[in-house]
Amino acid sequence: MKRLATATVAAVMAAAPVMADLVFPSLSYRTGAYAANGIPFADGYADYFTLLNERDGGIGGVMTRLLECETGYNTEKGVECYEATKGEGSLVYQPLSTGITYQLIPKATADGIPMHTMGYGRTSAANGKVFSNVFNYPANYWNGASLVVNHLLDINGGDIKGKTVALVYHNSAYGKEPIPTLEALAAKHGFNLSLLAVDHPGQEQKSQWLQIRRERPDYVVMWGWGVMNQVAIQEAANIRYPMENFIGVWWSGSENDVLPAGDAADGYKHITFHNVGDDYPIFEDVAKYVVGAGKAAGAGDQVGTVLYNRGFYAAMLAAEAVRKAQEIHGVGDITPAMMRDGMEALEITEARMAELGMPGFGPSFAVSCENHGGPGTGAVAQWDASAKKWSLISDFSSPDMSVIQPLIDADSAAFAAENNITEGCN
Amino acid sequence: MTGPNTEAWAKYMICLVFLTVAGILARNMTRGALGRKWSAIRDMDIAAEIIGVNPLTAKLSAFAISGFFIGISGALFFSVYLGAAEVGEVFGIQKSFLVLFMIIIGGLGSIFGSFAGAAFMVLLPVLLKNVLVGGLGWDTALAAHLEFVIVGALIIVFLIAEPHGLAQLWRVAKEKLRLWPFPH
Questions:
Q1: Chain A: nearest CA to B161, how far in angstroms?
Q2: Distance of alpha carbon A279 from alpha carbon A420, whole angstroms
Q3: Which of A7, A58, A98, B55 sits most deeply, having the most CB atoms within 10 A of its CB?
Q4: All domains of chain A, ordered by start, with CATH?
Q5: pLDDT tens string B95-137
């Protein structure tokens, strides 16, 4: 018995010492109805950290480690993945699901781990005084709704009174997010909003599109995800709805959403908060250090697609926040609390992005305690079915914060009251 | 005991208390007169009616009492385990399938079977993930897909080869182990 005890102790001591590393959990979904869109994002996220490890030896000299956990876009599994990975020193959570985000907001705040819900999640988390651990820079859903309406105003010379706009949305927390803002904007600009819900997973949309064919709204706006996007674009093509009047949010504008409809999807638009395309110097590094070295996540064929770029961008923002945290606290191996501080002090400039090899990839912005949501700027991109490319057809412009800010304040105040949170910035 | 600040052990204990009380209730009910009426209706309802078991009250009470237990478990699942519920997804058909498979694999008509089946259905994905993703380093999607395949195959195997499920396997194992190597 004594020999067994000493042998065990010796074995434990002889085990390799735990290397300090920066843990990034990736709550991805490579299965299920949303896999087509979840896979490129997860690939982009993973590849950026692989690039940093291979090319630079990590961030600030500390290697990164990615923990991938399959959620299948299921809220319950997402929460289980969170509970399973939070003990490993996870620095930031990016669940890529509004449903999972809503459930993780109280848990992550209680555990002191920051969440970055870039362009999704709970929009009012932009108010950092109430949501200390949730960040959604550089844009959120209410910004997106306003950007869509701004684009409609642009192409109509500033007046859309009397026009009908139909919102085809995923019947979940995600799809319902823009409704309050769109209703406020409808009251302000005088257009009629009609709401058409599509239930998960979104493969049955015939009745919604029959209604659109009957009513012929002037514009259709889509808040879809996963297989719902592809089916909606195909249905719109079937009823011969003019594609240039069909605008999706940034999650409804990826190559795999428009490719199935072929040439019929020509002219489909989506709003985006980052640039599109694959001719950035950093992708040469990716080809050399990641895809070329056989270390690409997934199949390695998504480099440069819209969602891959978005995952890549999200990872870049996380890495820059780590650098900021390392700078503020002076240590290489940071804790989640330090990561939160780094995210709150983050500043992304055009010069820095160009230095990284991603010039003009996204907006320049600075995060502050009052504003966890960034500038909210976005542009409109249009699909060219023959060239099979997205291209920006407008400049990056700002949303109508005079409508959005009061909504954010009201919603976050309601959350604070419900959960006894004292507003404040430390 | 609810809310994000609860410790995991506190959540476990509260559920354990409810489970113990419910388990004792269920066991005593199935061994009593009511339980015998239920078994009689299950085995041959026409013969049971003939010997004087009222089929309406037996079936209605079975439905109502099992609904009571399910209500307790649903409330605990939502408030203690999950903390919040995603409308449309959390108590959907997938959850019903999961519970059905737990009972089938565990063994129909046995209380121990429900425990064994539940443990199996909850732990199998975790085990698969730890072995395949953690141990062998396979893709997470592959592990998730394999889980479907394995669970489906197990349902078929259990329904054909051993309809009384894990509970029966355990009973037979106990009998054989009593012959050798643990006679008592």
A1: 31
A2: 48
A3: A98
A4: 21-131+277-368 (3.40.50.2300), 141-273+378-405 (3.40.50.2300)
A5: 888 899 898 888 888 889 999 999 998 888 888 888 887 777 7
